[in-house]
Write a structure and sequence with these properties.
The protein has about 550 residues and is of the alpha+beta class. It is built from 22 helices and 18 strands. About 45% of the residues lie in helices and about 20% in strands. The protein has a nine-stranded mixed sheet, sandwiched between helices. A four-stranded antiparallel sheet has the order 4-16-17-18. It has a three-stranded antiparallel sheet with strand order 1-2-3.
């Protein structure tokens, strides 16, 4: 049978020329030899002059596959165009964080795909589990095609059947990613609202709502985070549990569960109590805790806040000083810019209150709207100007209690880093939409929080990774002109949403050819998306294959 092959020749100058030839296999002395029947022409010249297309069309006529209007239309039929890039990227991050390896030990492949689908949805377009079944139809990922709502719920149940082991393994893997030299463990809590009855849940309860929704039942969620902003653990409690009680529970589990030998515990003012301090001392744990300044007795307050001497400047805004009271060490921090701002606000408030007292004789209105502490309500309504002056002592200051030997600057910075947890909670409640919840049982509620926590880890991992000079420069260059003008002196880091939206421009397009084949290929990868892949050392996808088959990314 004749067939076509190439024949290569080397020129005198070392260059190569290739010819397309028609050959036939013949047997000579028992061996197969190729006999050249015809030389069709040089390949480069055939390509340039359209000879290859004419040759193909000629062969098609003999095969009965003439390119008429109908077959030409079929060859251009686009069957679908689905999103691909962002989910592909998230799947690579999923593996980088060790989730695939950890879940492989306990869960089946379909359960893992269902969990990844839920987490990816949290990061891209949060919706209910029922909504995910519809959302995933927009995504090109064949392993999701047969997933239904029941598979999401079953996967959540399987996750919680091994929840303690999996969360511990994920926590240890996260700690291994931390670059912080000192083991500063930050901790804070927030409330998560629940909408609906939740009649089968024991952990839903009414309590102090940080969203000011005391009419809704809630759960309490605590997050553990390293100094460089990597969340590695979480805890769920009944909705009426106080921060002080939750603090002691987490503290006792920390060393046992995560194997951290040396801990410096950093927590906000809500965690400071005599009982918690005693617990920390008993466990020999180092700590940096915020102090509720207004709860201090008058003598201690005077020593800490009333004496302006002893401050050491850290930078042009912040200054600190060490104060020892008996055997306890305190660090008094003062932000000079915040102090000036607080003074200005207080002067403005004085004017507002004076006008209200002059024009409004309704005491109940003034009391209900937070003015009571500045008013003398005995007889004639008068403003307590001395109380205003006493407030000046708190301007721009915060006080820390510690038993560490760290420098003043390190301690002050460690406490300020608690904003990373506050940012994490804002992320949980806004981009990842952890609430409101509608699950009815404890198991499903806890699984929902677990998956949102995994999404949070991925989100912050991406956010930290985007902070490179190359990406920041590209992001700055693509900002609208009015934004550039406002932030020309400020470095702007690309947001996670910006990166995922850019990656989501990569679509998988499925096309039906005139030969009854389905071919899928990717749209062009933008320069920004290409840079994102390089930044996270993720192999850029190249995707072309015949359908039906499983995903083949090379």
């Amino acid at each position: 049978m004749p067939y076509i092959r190439t024949k290569t020749f080397k020129n005198k100058d070392g260059s190569i020329r290739e010819y397309l030839v028609l050959v036939e296999g013949t047997r000579v002395d028992g061996k197969v030899r190729q006999k050249v029947l015809a030389t069709i022409g040089r390949i480069d010249e055939l390509k340039k002059g359209g000879g290859l297309e004419r040759l193909k069309a000629s062969l098609d006529r003999f095969m009965g596959l003439e390119m008429n209007a109908e077959t030409e239309q079929k060859s251009l039929d686009l069957v679908s165009a689905k999103k691909f890039g962002a989910v592909y990227f998230l799947e690579q991050i999923w593996e980088k964080l060790g989730y695939k390896k950890i879940l492989n030990l306990k869960l089946g492949q379909k359960q893992q795909e269902a969990l990844f689908c839920i987490v990816a949805n949290r990061l891209l377009e949060p919706c209910s589990k029922l909504g995910i079944e519809s959302w995933k139809k927009q995504i090109f990922k064949s392993s999701w095609d047969k997933l239904e709502v029941q598979h999401f719920y079953r996967a959540m149940d399987s996750l919680m059947a091994h929840g303690s082991e999996i969360s511990e393994a994920i926590g240890k893997a996260s700690l291994a990613l931390s670059k912080a030299k000192t083991t500063l463990v930050m901790f804070d809590t927030t409330s998560i609202m629940h909408w609906g009855e939740g009649e089968y849940s024991d952990i839903l309860d009414y309590g102090y709502s940080k969203e000011k929704r005391g009419d809704l039942r809630q759960i309490m969620v605590g997050i553990l985070m390293t100094a460089d902003g990597i969340p590695f653990g979480y805890k769920v409690w009944r909705g009426n549990q106080s921060d002080v009680k939750s603090f002691s529970i987490v503290l006792q589990e920390l060393q046992l569960k995560y194997g951290i030998d040396e801990v410096i515990w950093v927590a906000d003012r809500g965690m400071l109590s005599k009982k918690n301090i005693e617990l920390l001392e008993e466990l020999k744990v180092k700590y940096i805790l915020g102090v509720r300044m207004r709860k201090l007795d008058q003598e201690t307050r005077q020593k800490l806040l009333g004496e302006p001497e002893g401050f050491v400047p850290i930078n042009n805004k912040l200054r600190v000083k060490n104060v020892w009271i008996e055997d306890k060490r305190y660090i008094v921090c003062e932000n000079l810019a915040e102090a000036t701002k607080a003074k200005q606000q207080r002067e403005f408030f004085k004017e507002i209150l004076a006008k209200k007292v002059e024009l409004d004789t309704a005491k109940s209105f003034l009391i209900k709207n937070g003015y009571k502490k500045y008013l003398n309500l005995d007889g004639e309504l008068k403003i307590d100007w001395d109380r205003f002056e006493a407030e000046a002592v708190y301007d721009g200051k915060w006080v820390l209690a510690t038993n560490t030997h760290l420098t003043d600057k390190t301690i002050g910075q460690a406490y300020k880093d608690l904003w990373k947890i506050e940012r994490a909670f804002r992320t949980l409640k806004s981009p990842l939409a952890v609430d409101p919840m509608f699950h009815w049982t404890d198991k499903r509620i806890e699984a929902h929080v677990f998956l949102c926590f995994m999404a949070l880890q991925i989100y912050l991992f991406i956010k930290n990774g985007l902070n490179t000079p190359e990406l920041c420069a590209v992001y700055q260059a693509n900002l609208p002109n009015e934004v550039k003008h406002k932030s020309n002196k400020k470095k702007r880091t690309p947001s996670v949403d910006f990166a995922l939206n850019e990656l989501d421009t990569i679509h998988a397009v499925t096309q039906q050819t005139g030969y009854r084949k389905m071919i899928t290929h990717l749209t062009r990868i933008s320069p920004i998306a290409d840079l994102i892949f390089k930044t996270f050392t993720i192999k850029k996808p190249k995707y072309i294959h015949d359908l039906p088959s499983d995903d083949q990314v090379v």
